[in-house]
Amino acid sequence: MNRRSFLKNMCAAASVALFGLPQYAYSGEHVPQVNEDDLKDYLHIMANFDKPQPSDIVLSAERKILLDSALKRLKRVQRTVGFGNFCVLSFDGALAVARNYSAVGKFTRAETDFLDEIFHIDAATYGFYGDKPVKILTAKASSNELVKIPRTGNYLFRGKPQEKYLQIKKQLGDSVYLTSGVRGIMKQFILFLSKAAANEGNMSLASRSLAPPGYSYHAVSDFDVGEKGLGAANFSSMFACSATCARLQELGYLKLRYPENNLLGVRFEPWHIKV
Predict the structure, then answer these.
(1) What is the C-alpha to C-alpha distance for residues 228 and 136, in angstroms, rounded to an integer?
(2) Is 38 within 8 Å of 51 (Cβ atoms)?
(3) Is 1 exposed, middle or buried (0-12, 13-18, 19+ CB in 10 A)?
(4) CA 203 – CA 218 distance, rounded (Å)
(5) What is the distance between the alpha carbons of residues 166 and 159, in angstroms, rounded to a whole number?
(6) Secondary structure element (H or E) that encloses residue 179, with its range
(7) Contact, 198 vs 103, CB < 8 A?
(8) Which element (helix H / strand E) includes 227?
(9) pTM to 2 decimals?
(10) pLDDT tens track of the chain, all 275 residues?
(11) Are strands 176-180 and 154-157 parallel, antiparallel or unpaired?
(12) End-to-end C-alpha distance for the chain, whole angstroms
């Protein structure tokens, strides 16, 4: 059994508990036979999630050119509308901004085809085995669904996400803050493609720390929190050692989307609040 087949089977299993891994419920499926070598290979890759691996999927030179041109245009859109507004900007909204602002320039057909392809490709191709909560490229959150969180530059969905964040703030106080809220399709594009571009078009490496567009639960409910003073370390393993993380765990908030040693091909994210 090769690594990719092994991982697909593992993520279809019912109630997996290996090496202290948390249980995952996959109804109607059986626990497959585990190939020890494949498991060791997977754990090694995830322990070195930010390093290229021989099995990684990397874009061709021609596709890297498209990646770079689409990404540069996305960044011009982001500068034009502002970082906060870009977080909730839809695909069609981004195309409209590009058409209407000469400083951005209209997306070429090749660029939109490239973005469409990236959105619709099965992320398991890269080694990402999480769910895809957003299946329509042009999906858009309406303004009455969103609330902007003061002094963060981020939005949250009204209802359970906002209620959970306010509850966390009430219990932990000013030591905790919202680091990333709603991320629409275009925001996820710019994050994912930026990571890939910084690593020579390595799509597998990018997917180990950033969900491909459509696969992020930030688009429908979840959010990230951090400890004041940690800065960028809030998105690293250092957060797991923080007082804020310990308090979140104590209060029962860390029912993690991506636990430590998960089998979804995603790094450990203790800062990610599942709603």
Answers:
(1) 36
(2) no
(3) middle
(4) 20
(5) 11
(6) strand 176-180
(7) no
(8) strand 223-227
(9) 0.86
(10) 444 443 344 433 322 332 233 333 322 333 334 577 788 889 999 999 999 999 999 999 999 999 999 999 999 999 999 999 999 999 999 999 999 999 999 999 999 999 999 999 999 999 999 999 999 999 999 999 999 999 899 999 999 999 999 999 999 999 999 999 999 999 999 999 999 999 999 999 999 999 999 999 999 999 999 999 999 999 998 999 999 999 999 999 988 898 888 889 999 999 999 99
(11) unpaired
(12) 35
**Two tokens, residue 215:** 């696969």
Token pair for 116? 């469409």
Tokens of 249: 């765990």
Nearest Cα residue to 156 out of 141, 176, 134 = 141
Task: Tokens for 176, please give them.
Answer: 């905790």
**Position of tokens 């990684």?**
56
Alpha helices in the chain (DSSP H): 3-10, 36-47, 61-81, 83-86, 91-100, 109-120, 160-172, 185-197, 203-207, 243-250
Return the structure tokens found at 162.
């906002």
**Side-chain half-sphere of 264: how many Cα atoms within 13 Å?**
25
Calpha distance 147→160 (Å, rounded): 12
Tokens read off for 158: 């009204």
What separation in angstroms does the CA of 13 have from each of 17, 37, 43? Answer: 10, 18, 17
